Amino acid sequence: MDETSIPFNKPYVAGKELYYIAQSISFGNISADGRFTKACNELLCERFNLGSSLMVTSCTSALEMAAILCDVEPGDEVILPSYTFVSTANAFVRAGVKPVFVDVRPDTLNMDETQIENAITSRTKAIVPVHYAGVACEMDTITEIADRHGIYVVEDAAQGMHAYYKGRALGSIGHMGTYSYHETKNYVCGEGGTLTINHPELTTRAEIIRDKGTNRQQFFRGAVDKYTWVDVGSSYVLSELSCAFLYAQLEALDEIRALRKQVFDNYRDLLGGLEKEGFLQMPVIPDECDTNYHMFYILLKDQETRDSLMQYLREHDINAVFHYIPLHTSPMGRSFGYREGQLPVTEDLSGRLLRLPFFNEISFSQQERISDWINSFLAQRTYRMAA
Ligand SMILES: *Cc1c(COP(=O)(O)O)cnc(C)c1O
Prior knowledge:
Bound molecules: pyridoxal-5'-phosphate
Structural class: alpha/beta
Number of strands: 12
């Protein structure tokens, strides 16, 4: 049996990453918008049926660009879950926008779509659903509400690339969407991201914002005879070297998904007995959702149980980790007037959730070892959840 320590995450190399990086060097363009950038865009648009896509430095950058494209002004509001990564909120907050947090659904930990309507005011500019763990939010309802109020939908699909809602790829459903290639995600290049755009009228402005507020892309296409400063913007372009690395990962899109499915299914099999006996709960995937197996988490009886189990696993060299501290209870969240007690489902679930080690090359025997220690911990105690 393998007794070495089990990390939480381990970035996967699909095979051709270095070869493609070497190619990009030999092509003589390592800055941006070379062959690999184009190849990544083409592959993403074709596989996920996107209107267009822009390679950027991170999902955070993509969210910042989306905020600018939503034409937000100070005092405007966006609706988002509190149970998410800081960037979902920060991208809008840095433009003077107030984050309006709604609670999550107890089954998927995704934004509770039944709470959105009540949160809308005359200042609401956008809804930002976050597809937690690669399981889709209830997009039909969210899109319907947004259309009725004439506001944007920006999908934070950082964890949702190559996952589907009623057959449609996440990131292809809202006006815009964002992917992340941070090393903890399913498809990686160290740091990187994509802004997806499904409403063509946003594309030209998005290109300008990405390229320091200049119309350089139009100049390259021959649409204008010189390039100049035309709008706000920043340097959000992803290096061709990173795109070369990423392209090797995107070519292995299905292979990587299959590896992760196996890991996910193994956990389900190994921990199914404990769920039946009421010791823990495993992820729920609604029928209309096709996941990309981004993560495997378990929900324990209460926070004390979660924290002790996490500690116990660490003592046995297993790095299981908790996830988001709800944004509404963070110091920044409090500065907007939020308080503990306002989003009970978020507060409850975030304290009980434990993410298990999850990476493409984790072995079955490592997963067995994790399951055995979870079993031995829960067997010793009266940690069963109420029926
Ligand atoms: C990882 C993540 C981000 C940020 O992605 P970066 O590429 O690191 O900027 C944003 N939102 C969610 C939900 C994430 O999981």
